[in-house]
Every structure is written in structure tokens, then in C-alpha cells.
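Annotated sample (chain length 91).
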Amino acid sequence: MTFNIEHHADKGLFLAIIEGHRAYIHYELEDNTMYISHTNVPEALGGRGIAGELTEFALNTARQEAWKVVPQCSYTQAYLKRHPEFDDLRL
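Output written by the structure step:
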């Protein structure tokens, strides 16, 4: 599935609008540390890997910005356990 992810740094948001639904990751940035607090994919979009793509995008953004990551939401915690290639981002 191909979709566009927008980074709204002023709102601490990674957003994708798919089929009229908003899928997003919310975070707070403090001292070059991204605290990922919430991942939301509407039920109508479930099972398509959208949360994973949003998370990968967010983590790649953190890497590009030289941010560390603290996963506060359960989805991001589980994603990081399955993807050790992002271990360098963990605080």
C-alpha cells in the first residue's frame, strides 16, 4: 500500500490520511529526545501494516535529526523489539 506521511513538527505529529481516515503517531520532543506517546490507526484501516509504516517513518526521522527515542506507547515498544536495526535510537 502506498500513502503519503506528513510530519507536522509543530504539532508533534506524523500523519497519513488514507481513504478519508486519519492514521497518526503523536510525540513530544524534549532535549533532542522524541517521546512517542500514541499510535492510532482507525479500525477501518487495520491489518494493512499502516502502523508499522508510520513507525518506521517516525524512527527514520529521529535518526535523520539525531534524536533519541523513548517509546511510551505499546505499539512502538513492540515494534522496536521486532526491529533491532533501530536499537541505536533508544535512550
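Annotation: Residues 5 and 16 are 5 Å apart (CA to CA).
Annotation: Helices lie at 50-65, 74-82.
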